[in-house]
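Thread: quick sanity check before group meeting

JM: Hey all, I'm pulling together slides for Thursday and realized we never actually wrote out the predicted structure for the chain we discussed last week. Dropping the sequence here so it's in one place. If anyone has concerns about the input, flag it before I start.
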Amino acid sequence: MRPTSARPTSARPSSTRPSSTRPGAEPLPHRPAPPPANPAGPQTADLDRLLDQDGTVPDGVAAQLNFFLGGGPECPDGELEQDEPPQVSTRQFTEIPSVPNFCFRGFDVARDVRIVVTTPTGSATMTLKARWQSLGGFAYPVPPGSPTGRYRVRATQGSRSADTEFQVRRASTPTMWIHRRNADLGETVDVYLGGFPPNKPADLHLYVCLPLRYRATTTVAIDRNGEGHLALHTTAATEPNCYAMNSPLIYTPPPVLPDSPDGPDNQVFWLHEPQPATPPNCLTRALRC
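JM (edit): ok, ran it. Output follows.
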């Protein structure tokens, strides 16, 4: 599911009423309208154009990073003891932005799961399609501009259902989340920012594997809540590889890179060549064909 950007607001027409300033009185000083709480929509950038930059490392920017590039299960095993009720779970608190995972236990992986998320401003319905991976869960983006407060989650599959909830708050320090972390060529990769100094543009630096070497810089507008959103477009001609984005406000590597990966692990993404769909293995346990 892709996050929905807020609609731009239309300017109100100027008033045709006569001025209420009394004769001889000094006019009131002009007060500019405050910047919008959220951007009208994500900024966009083309990854191919960024890769065309000459790669000269700016002063004060790290030439190389050593982020963790691997992965692992997001959720525990989905099996339950017999007669246990189904469960849906996620972490209790999350910040704007982030991409928490909903984990499911006691549901049939061969069937769809209907998910309803109720936020402080409304609700949205999504579907976890059949033959989902129980260890992967369901990624639910909480992008810039999301409301703070309590979020309630209900998962339903036929007569079986489960509920959970979590609290959303604004990031208190500069934070970045990339979604999706694994994408096909031609898809858009979203870079979410939060906790940045308000109303000050932020420089984001692109790194390319392997190793993660500096390639380019792009600038993203930050709103008065300290949040921003970059939609990074890719094409069928983009190099399939792993990439990372970074801001020195989030992470600055030590003068000598450590031997083991260091730094945040939610700022790396992989681009893959699209693969043809493969039929399910009907001999696999829990799959019904």
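AS: nice. The chain has one helix and 18 strands. The helical segments are 47-51.
JM: adding both to the slides.
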